[in-house]
Amino acid sequence: MVIDKVAWIHVVDGKVLSTRSRGKDVYYLPGGKRELGESDTATLAREVLEELTVRIDPTTARHIGTFEAQAHGHPDGVVVRMTCYTADFEGSLAPASEIAEIVWLTGSDRDSVPPVDQLIFTHLQDQGLLDG
């Protein structure tokens, strides 16, 4: 089984924006599951607006990679496929919906994120974008 998700990668000064949902003990990159027939950029814009109250500009979305790993909190063999984009946005970041907290993480925080996010952190570090 594969869980299909889209994530927003927003890096500022060597730190990547992450979120913690209510009742969760790990941080996740902003984004989520696509709805039936929804494009990557539509999913990205909808999820980021719901979670962080900002509007993604889909015309600026740039694919930076697709990553797969064991899904956190799921039985062995359940994989999450995370398609990641950078994109410009308008508005002020604020936690909304199920999001309890917004944080800025570096590579040294990799033990605080699920396996697929750890792969993304490594990719960002290899690109010289993420500190730690």
TrEMBL record:
InterPro entries attached to this UniProt entry: NUDIX_hydrolase_CS, NUDIX_hydrolase_dom
Name by which UniProt lists this protein: NUDIX domain-containing protein
Organism listed in the record: Nocardia iowensis
Coiled-coil spans in chain: none
A Pfam family the protein falls into: NUDIX
Transmembrane parts of this sequence: none
Domain Nudix hydrolase intervals: 1-129
Highest taxon of source: Bacteria
